[in-house]
Design a protein that fits this description.
single chain, alpha+beta, Thiol Ester Dehydrase, Chain A
């Protein structure tokens, strides 16, 4: 059972400490391995998580050719001034999943980056929402341009946001 916060608790500062490993290790691996191999190494803990994943508290849990899944638990530190998870957190999660879905198709020495994305927020996310998954799939994998889509869902499949992206593929 969750304890209600009293008025004194609401005035106390909260803290959160974030630690990460040097991202150069991951960048160097990304240049030598195929996208799929690189992302599997991150998923399996053989290559460090990118700092953004540590900062926001999300993790890559599934990666297959043309697919990527990130998971996270909404927390108070994700809140905006009106008491819901900031849309930028959901956008970052979906962007990460979609870009990784594209990256799974890239051969060694080839990377990708987001050119643009569109997001639709369907319902608010709060701490009580619970565990969420950003499930992304490749739509089109070209040699220079690729597209993907993703959905942010809870354990029952209820959608909180969905998005599409266009990525640039480069050497």
């Amino acid at each position: 059972m969750r304890k209600e916060k009293n008025v004194d608790d609401r005035t106390k500062a909260r803290t959160r400490t974030v630690s990460w490993k040097d991202p150069v290790t991951s960048v160097e691996a990304a240049r030598k391995l195929s996208g799929l191999e690189h992302l599997r190494r991150i998923r399996d803990g053989m290559t460090p998580n990118p700092p953004i994943a540590e900062l926001l508290g999300f993790s890559l849990t599934k990666v297959e050719l043309g697919e990527a899944v990130f998971e996270f638990d909404p927390a108070e530190y994700h809140y905006n001034p009106v008491g819901t998870v900031h849309g930028g957190v959901a956008a970052t999660l979906l962007d990460s999943a979609m870009t990784c879905a594209v990256q799974t198709t890239c051969p060694a020495g080839t990377l990708c980056t987001t050119l643009e994305f569109k997001i639709n927020f369907v319902r608010p996310i709060v701490e009580k929402t619970g565990h969420l998954r950003a499930e992304a799939k490749l739509i089109h994998g070209g040699s220079r341009i690729a597209t993907a889509e993703a959905r942010l869902v809870d354990g029952d499949g209820k959608i909180y946001a969905h998005a599409t992206t266009t990525c640039l593929i480069f050497s």
